[in-house]
Specification:
9 strands; single chain; alpha/beta; two-stranded antiparallel sheet; 225 residues; 7-stranded mixed beta sheet
Amino acid sequence: MNSEIFINEEAENYFERNKAHSHSYFIDYLLEIFPKIRLKNFDVAEFGIGNGQNLMYLKHFVNKVHGFEGSNSAVELFKKQYSGHPHIKDFFAEQVNLAKPFNAPSVYDLIIYGFFPYYVDDDEMKIVKQNTLKMLKDESYIFIYDFLVRNNRVKTDSRNDKLKVYKRNLLYWLDYFHEFDMIDYRLFDSYKGQENLTSNSIMKIDPLLPADDDAWLFAALFKKK
């Protein structure tokens, strides 16, 4: 299984490469498009928490934040960050393989797919979907951000020749979340990083988006029907 190779051989390396980053600009985008009055009572889970900064930031706006992650170091760092929080009962983290069945301690109003699907093959994504559906409340949401291409691609990871990397197109995601309505979508330039979001352009189309789809990232919000 591709996810097992990632967890056993690369998850800790991936965490070390990215642990110094602040929260993702995709989370800023989520907060811009989602009414904060709705978020304040939300229980939120993130699949693939990285350094935990997304959840620590979101806790300012939501009720509860739970994280599920393949890297044990990432989970331990997140636990350390919230260990002294006055509302510690509103936090939870667990090391899991997202592509294997697991049980969560709660059900959620919003589940965030972080950067993990490109290390999960199509068959494993079906199990991720099963995990997702059983963890969602009625009238719930999924927010996903990932690489995007015109045509689905599979290639060997540049750091581990036993590991595959999966890039998928929008049609894949619309079919994958067919039980949901896509209510927001945005395409980003992966080379711009935080520059993708500014206070006066967050809701505008980027007219300078590269023609090369290797530079494409997307974010989408889905609502359960």
